[in-house]
């Protein structure tokens, strides 16, 4: 009889994990783990370790960088303050939501 509650607990836990993987980036940074809402629902980049990211890595992960900026967690983008990629992200976000102001 104890197998049925265990099954349902696993079912619920699996559903929660799928929901989180579809809707959030779990980002490992120098100051801990952050949940950043995704801009599109898919399973890509569900967990990303950004502790050693440089300009090249951010350039390859533009969707993640845009989601971080949109979530007002810009402190995670330590090396991007004056890069062309940063200006591009600002332009993309302004076109998506009007003005960032």
Widest β-sheet, arrangement of strands? 2-1-3
Question: SSE order in H/E notation?
Answer: HEEEHHH
User: What kind of sheet is the major sheet?
Assistant: 3 strands, mixed
Provide the low-confidence segments as ranges. Answer: none
- Which value, in Å, is the CA radius of gyration? 17 Å
Distance between the termini: 58 Å
Overall mean confidence score, pLDDT: 83
**Total of helices:** 4
Number of strands: 3
Q: Which percent range describes the beta-strand content?
A: 5-15%
Question: Would you kindly provide a written description of the structure presented here, covering whatever features stand out?
Answer:
15% of the residues are buried. The chain has one domain. Helix 3 (62-70) packs across helix 4. It is α+β, with helices and mostly antiparallel strands and 101 residues long. 50% of the residues lie in helices and 15% in strands.
Task: From the structure above, extract its key features.
15% strand, 101 residues, three-stranded mixed sheet
What layout of secondary structure does this protein have?
Layout lengths: L2 H21 E6 L2 E6 L9 E3 L5 H6 L1 H9 L13 H14 L4
Parallel strand pairs: 1-3
Antiparallel strand pairs: 1-2
Short characterization:
This protein is α+β, with helices and mostly antiparallel strands. The chain is 50% helix and 15% strand. Helix 3 (62-70) crosses helix 4.
